[in-house]
């Protein structure tokens, strides 16, 4: 996941992230909790810890999903992001996973993955947290294509 994140961050001139063992453990704990309880929700009180979080869920009735497409799924939200206004293209657009991934000030990453039957849950935590109001201009940059 670190390689995928940094590949996308490089496109946006965002600083590369480093892997955090403590964030890995934190994310794995939550992924296990989600899988064990068959839930899909964010952990509470992340703001007080200055941690961001992306969660992903996939199900396949035949094959066991790997979860490796989580980062691609999050990044694909770029299609709903306006770089002209540095905001979502519409009020209902889901873009916070994308913006957290490329958030320039988020320099540490930890991810966990857990299974429940043919479902996979992926959680990534970021330090420092992204998606801070009035800080998008300094942290979400247009891609160099």
Number of strands: 6
Task: Tell me the Rg in angstroms.
Answer: 15 Å
Average pLDDT score: 95
Tally the helices: what do you get?
5
How much of the sequence lies in strands comes to 15-25%
- Distance N terminus to C terminus? 22 Å
Strand order of the largest sheet: 1-5-6-2
Low-confidence stretches: none
Quickly give the structural class.
alpha+beta
Spatial shape: globular
Describe the structure.
The protein has helices spanning 2-11, 21-37, 70-75, 96-102, 136-139, and strands at residues 18-19, 51-59, 81-82, 87-88, 108-116, 119-127. By secondary structure, the chain is an alpha+beta fold. A hairpin with a 2-residue loop joins β5 and β6 (119-127). The longest helix is centred in the N-terminal third of the chain and has 17 residues, at 21-37. It is globular and about 45 Å long.
